[in-house]
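Input:
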Amino acid sequence: MKSFSYERASNAGQAAARAAEVPGAMFVAGGTNLLDLMKLEIETPRHLIDVNGLGLDKVEETEEGGLRLGALVSNTDLAADDRVRRDYPVLTRALVAGASGQLRNKATTAGNLLQRTRCPYFYDTAMPCNKRSPGEGCGALSEGAFSRQLGIIGTSDSCIATHPSDMAVALRVLDAVVETVTPSGATRRIPLEEFHQLPGDTPEKETALMDGELITSVVLPAPVGGKQAYYKARDRASYAFALVSVALIRQPDGSGRVALGGVAPKPWRRPEADAELPNGARAVMARLLDGARPTEENTFKITLAERTLASMLAEE
Amino acid sequence: MEFNKPADQNLFDRSKVVGKPHTRIDGPLKVSGQAPYAYERHDVVDGQLVGYPVGSTIAKGRITSMNTEAAKKAPGVKAVVTTLDIEPLGIWDYNAARLFGGDKVEHYHQAIAVVVAETFEQARAAAALIETSYDVEQAKFDLKSEFERLQGTGEPDTVGNFDEAFAAAPVTLDEVYTTPSESHAMMEPHASIVDWSDGGDMKLWTSNQMIEWGRQALAKIFSIDPDRISLESPYIGGGFGAKLWVCSDAVLAAVGSRAAGRPVKLAMPRPFVANNTTHRSATIQRIKIGAAEDGKITAISHEAASHTLLGGSGENAIAQTPYFYAGDNRYIIHHPVEMNLPEANAMRAPGETAGLMALEIAMDEMAEKLDMDPVEFRIANDTQIKPGNPMKPFSDRHFVECLRRGADAFGWADRNKTPGGQRDGNWLIGHGMAGAYRGAPTMKSGARVRLKDGSLTVETDMTDIGTGSYTILAQTAAETMGLPLEAVDVQLGKSSYPVSSGSGGQWGAASSTAGVYAACVALRQQIAERLGLEDPRFEGGNVVDGDMETALVDIAQGEELVAEDTMEFGDFKKNMVHATFGAHFVEVGVHAGTGETRVRRMLAACDAGRILNPITARSQVIGGMTMGTGGALSEELALDQGRGFFANHDLAGYEVAVHADIPHQEVIFLDTLDVSATPLKAKGVGELGLCGVAAAIANAAYNATGVRVRDYPVTLDKMIDKLPAI
Ligand SMILES: Cc1cc2nc3c(=O)[nH]c(=O)nc-3n(C[C@H](O)[C@H](O)[C@H](O)COP(=O)(O)OP(=O)(O)OC[C@H]3O[C@@H](n4cnc5c(N)ncnc54)[C@H](O)[C@@H]3O)c2cc1C
Ligand code: SF4
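Output:
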């Protein structure tokens, strides 16, 4: 870990302004991802702005009948919120499928969205990684590399990492919108769909956020009802990242929405795949995973995604 | 004392303390954070600095240069020592990896430098500033192709004529199985505090299972007199064989201490546990079995390969095959394959763990081919001698009883026998079983006892790696001296204490209790002589002879009586095979859609001689079953075959079983006594619980789905294409 300076922010606009002004500044929320990365010198901020005191730790109702989830609400509190459990059960299920109880107590809404990939080569600084050190090459794409956990779609020749969040997959299927404040004090609303970016030639650039921009909340539109489910397929029963996860909302008429985790650099959803839901899992995946480019080790994710969805659809 | 003939009826057959369920006497210290582990021993020596290791980033080659300038100038840094600064250090007898010194790199994360600083953060930050250049050499990491090349070569252990018998057998099996490399992944990483400030006497506070081996190893590594080395390791946060050895934590702390002139403490960063220390080697195993229609095995061949550094022995997956099942014609061989991976060495039940993972699937497959119940098939092939050698009987073998008792208690007879034929919602339900076999060696073991004012202190360099040694040794001493358990204080893990068996190879409990017994017998003799008695009894805190009763409190009137002895095990033991046996029964659910396998209940029936303490023994067995669940379903050190390193080197990537993976576990101990094992008639259980359990799970997954997976771990990707449509 490189040495760094530290300050506590008490105002969101100022925090963003400071982040843009101080060289090498980063925000820290729960610290459950950032501190690990700092210890390994994968992230090397020179200055930390602690955003825990910004008062962004509430879940509030919006005028549109939805919910505004504060950026600093812990994953535990968010999952347990009565309104979330009643109206957005897919979100609660996704949250409790993530990490462990202890981690969820510290992890926050914004931090969870911004957690970095779990690609093992990203995590080993002796290995080449375009995401960590642009231009170095991708350790996971070389002969004999271990790529079982990595992405199958939306990836590029420079990076095949996945975004590991469970929460984000549920937010995507719920059409959530990220609210921010920029260093100039302006506020922005970024649909989750546009929030995470595909790697292309710049896998180091992961989100639509500009330098210093602070997430203040995530807004859920009014509840859409339907049957909501989240299934996370993994090698052990808890405390493991998804091989594939499926967030599903299904209406009585058979229409609905589906998003995947564990397969792409962002929560993976396509409107044309949603439209196929009445026609079953195979039809959905034909659209949703069209253009997939798995490695030899992770082709199974295509079958796994289809079978996971099929068994969820068969459940009723 | 020498144990030179089978034990007669003795005091342990009338025991009041041994064999009774006592909770761990060190438990309260541990759960309240008062049992200090190596890295936390802040008070043992003043002026401790902190060391941080640097590991090689290539698997094979030579270091051409190392730039340490920036690291040396970094804040708080007191010393930087690189591997180029010193001559290659020695390698101890049971190890293959050179821990430090010289320019040669033999595996990824081999220690190549240590940075010593005032604080941990300073040392770690400075370590990242060291720049190293290498001449990289190509290396091969493909065990499968090496195995193909080696098959049929070497000098197998043979009985009869395997080829002929196999060709003639009406029912045969010929399959290849693989097991991955595994990490011990114990909670406490290797850690040491070393004071070698003046380069004279070396003092270590460390986490090590084998105190005397540790002393001898350090002496050889540094070419110094073992008498100048002292070592303490009273509490160990898990070892599983990873801490049988001195590892580079101790070596780097020593080198760093000498360079800085102050004591240095150093804990392995988690990734180093996988790539710097030892691990269980991957194996590839071809098993052929031929049997007559009645289920009697006529031919068995087990040919295996595993990787190792030059001079090591890898994972001897054939370990059980010469002993476990009958069969007159046998062909058994293990090929160690040299590979530039971290040192492959003992991990809990080395050999049998990987071997039974394969053999016990093969047995399941054979039973199916024979249309026999897998329990009955095993019973049909039980043997009371080492197959092919009538002169070598088992000392005490109740494998059949394990199978029968286990099957009954589990409700085996009621299971669905048709693969894929039972369902509960989204889950396909399956049942599987496997046999367990693990050798029961004993090692010479010493102890010293001190009696003062009616309280007894036991001193031995035996270790407690979380197993319960403190408790069973206290029970043994209390029983032998006729004292209540509370009157006994057990002190372990110091090199100034008599040399014990240490903890490894599941020999610890059986051997070290015998050693404590020997020391107590010596003390009893001393007391008897003092009182002028022939052969008094020791009970209820008194020495009793006829009508005469003297309280132990009053014997020496404030004086301390000290006795010391070592239990040696005589040659008569070599004429028989000592082993422990078990049978595992498991119910799993396999998700019909995803192919995820989850254990629903598991049961083990164990034959391991006298159970010294049912609570601690059960903990060992359920711990083994838990580890076996990880081994069956998720544990794999993922090898990057291009670069030659284990890529998933942290506990988020290397998936051991977690609580949610472990449902109901039941353990049955047979009431057996092995009179030729030790005076206590006891054998170990620490490794038995792991043996075979993974295969029982794999067999249950087969029964659930009809999909046979022969490559561990049994993950969903190996089944998903073969599961029925939804
Ligand atoms: C062992 C382990 C297992 C895990 N398993 C899972 C899992 O199965 N599923 C899952 O979804 N997650 C998992 N996680 C990840 C966990 O969910 C994240 O670490 C956590 O959500 C991050 O939240 P945080 O508040 O601690 O973020 P921090 O670590 O504080 O920050 C993360 C990033 O977000 C930035 N940031 C924080 N707040 C803001 C803000 N308001 N505006 C702008 N930027 C901000 C920080 O600068 C940093 O870059 C696991 C983590 C661990 C360590
Ligand atoms: S997949 Fe992406 S994160 Fe992983 S090594 Fe390649 S570039 Fe880095």
